[in-house]
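Supplementary Note 2. Why include the ligand at all?

Several targets in our set were suspected to adopt different conformations when bound, so apo predictions alone were not considered sufficient. For every target with a known small-molecule partner we therefore ran a joint prediction. The input for heme C is given below.
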Amino acid sequence: MFRCLPTKIAAALVIAAGTAALSAAIAGAFVSPTEPTKKGYVVAVADGSGAAPAAAPTGPEPIAALLASADAAAGQKAAKACLACHDMNKGGPNKVGPNLWGVVGAARGGSRKAGFAYSDAMKTTGGNWDFDTLNSFLYSPKAAVPGTKMTFAGIKDTKTRAEVIAYLRTLADSPVALPK
Ligand code: HEC
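The joint prediction is reproduced in token form.
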């Protein structure tokens, strides 16, 4: 009477394995660590066309080489877009966002400006606002710090981003050194 059991077990295992593989594939499609902004796309099945998805998110181009010659005055003009939310004067208030005087070189982690209610996302960042972290954050705030409450799309133009960061650097009693 147990004659059929091995077959049944084998069949059950095949089904279980198939289901597990399918769930893993589905989970993988939705929780892709390398493409966090592409939620909800239906599985990109390899169809042999070999074409990568055109809308694959790209990171910011580095700005280190541009900073030395970046025009801080042009950066000040572009930074008008920030003034809706940020005061940039020494001793100025926090607004929708924290005051930005002295931000270049300062610690991240949401403790820079007392009295400003940073997001939990910002509080869990570490390190400093150096040229690299500012480059990423200003390219795409929500990609660099997922969950940030800075609702600003970002500056996609690399030259403009370098100019804005060159301007932010001047907002200090003794600006940090430019990258070599
Ligand atoms: C729509 C409002 C808004 C705009 C526009 C905006 N920001 Fe912000 N910014 C915020 C908020 C809110 C925070 C706090 C983010 C958090 O806690 O997650 C923030 C945080 C920051 C921080 C981190 C400061 C710190 O103390 O750690 C920097 C740097 C920054 N913004 C730069 C800029 C620059 C430069 C621009 C213009 C190119 C800009 N922001 C435009 C709202 C804005």
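The chain has a mean pLDDT of 82. Residues 38 and 115 are 35 Å apart (CA to CA). Comparable summaries for the other entries are listed in the accompanying table.
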